[in-house]
Write a structure and sequence with these properties.
The chain is mainly alpha-helical and 330 residues long. The protein is 60% helix and 1% strand. A two-stranded antiparallel ribbon has the order 1-2. Helix 1 crosses helix 2 (36-69) and helix 2 packs antiparallel against helix 5. The longest helix is centred in the first third of the chain and has 34 residues, at 36-69. The N and C termini lie far apart (116 Å).
Amino acid sequence: MSLDWIYYAISWILLTWHSAWDAIGVPVGAVLGTNWSWILSIIFLVVTVRVILFPVFVKQIKSQRAMQALQPKVKELQEKHKGDRETLQKEMMELYRKEKANPLMGCLPMFLQIPVFLGLFHTLKRLNPNAKDQYKVLYGWTSGQFESAAHAKLFTAPISGKFGSTAAELASLGASAHTVKIVAGILVAIMIATTYLTSRQMILKTGWAEDPQQRMVQRLMLYGIPVSLLVSGSIFPIGVIIYWVTNNLFTLGQQQWVLRKFPPLVPAKTAKTGAAARNGVQPAKTGGLLGRKAAPAPAKPQVTTPKVAGPKPGAKPVNPKKTGPVKRQG
């Protein structure tokens, strides 16, 4: 299957934004070693894609809430059909259909962004100033636009350069290997950190899933993907890493807004928290991005007035002003 339609779409968005920044008056030349018109074009490619996918993202959150609400019924089905996997799957699918919950909706926004990522990766990877003229005008580019993008830099590091670029590749771009590795290394570190934080933010707000398979997916998203970026980040062009970091920052802000708009479900009985913790299920946290929450102020102890026993029937009243011992009546 040809992916040319993706390359044309990504190129059109990039070139449209680049033309817009030129029209506004963003300098074409490098400022602080950076061609800001191309950097802003990549950033606003993210904004364009995320605005288009926003309704899908809202559906993802609603589906996750529906799945969270169905967990008690899912556990009942698991207990009822223990050992009968086929019947259990049929009953669960029927439950999801009846309640209009889709387990795959949680991954849909990420899958829809994969073609965009691949398109940008291919588009930036081919930015070689020594390319043939017929290669430069592919996907709706002009030779002038291609040359401008091929020489675009971020703090003197070409956006088509990579941490693992060879000396010959960097020589064709007129770049310093030392500078490219520093800029790319810093961006890869930011990419890994923000990727981890986006997954952690969602888990802190929604809690760990009770289903073992879903919990395994959460752990993969939280730890597996950031670790994999240590290797794959070395082959990503700097422009692609800029896209990834911008996308993560956009996701952090968008998730924070949506999670406030559609807050996580709170269990009716807090007594289940202890049992859930024993089973390895962590309840949703309501703290900030890193899970920190101010400890509540300790309750002030109530001062109680000691009760004074009243005089026994028939006893004479005692004068409290007298300091001497009270004589007992014979």
